[in-house]
Amino acid sequence: MILLLRITKQNGGRKIARKLRDWYPGAVYHIMHRGVRRKPIFEDEMDHQVLLQIIKTSLSKYNCWLHAYCLMTNHVHLLIETGDIEIGKFMKYMSECYAIYYNHKYGYRGHVFESRYKSCLVKEDAYFLQTSRYIHLNPVKAQMADYPEYYLWSSYRTMIGITDDGITEKKKTLAYFPKNSIYQYREFVEDIGHKYIVQEQHIRKMIGEDELWLPW
């Protein structure tokens, strides 16, 4: 596991050391990356498609596997597993490529994403599954879709076999269910009871998404 300090900025003449994120080969993260000042990072359908293509290229370049994702209006959620390259390189490449595209298209300058993405190590099987559920329910909780499969910009439609986005790795997630059952995974995600309310609150707190659910 890597535990290092990085000198990041000066505050009143004093340098501040920021701890690098924990990483080891095979580490799994829940990542949330938000638009700078929480501004929208997608303006049309093409923007979503471009970021998904950039993610696909980034996964191949940095030997990572994507287990779940959701592209919201002003932020993205990723459930991602690293290989032998630490997660920061993947995120830097992905963010910079999309920023170049976005700024060129709309005539903007400067940052598109907040400089410090939020991440949480996912170490337990139960937490992995709950995070997958949390990510896929984001549009429903934000009242952007009645059901997760109605939302086009997440991995859920791929997970349940409606389509194939070419970037989502389904095997690890479905392996938690008897006979890799898509039906049981779907039932797990779409359970409308209050069975998972505590887990949802914990995940939201851990990733720093502590505001009320909002339609973006």
TrEMBL record:
InterPro entries: Transposase_17, Transposase_17_sf. SUPFAM superfamilies: Transposase IS200-like. Residues 24-138 form the Transposase IS200-like domain. Gene3D superfamilies: Transposase IS200-like (3.30.70.1290). One of its GO terms (molecular function) is transposase activity. GO terms for biological process: DNA transposition. It comes from the Bacteria. PANTHER family: TRANSPOSASE IS200-LIKE DOMAIN-CONTAINING PROTEIN (PTHR34322:SF2), TRANSPOSASE, Y1_TNP DOMAIN-CONTAINING (PTHR34322). This is Transposase IS200 like protein. It comes from Blautia wexlerae.
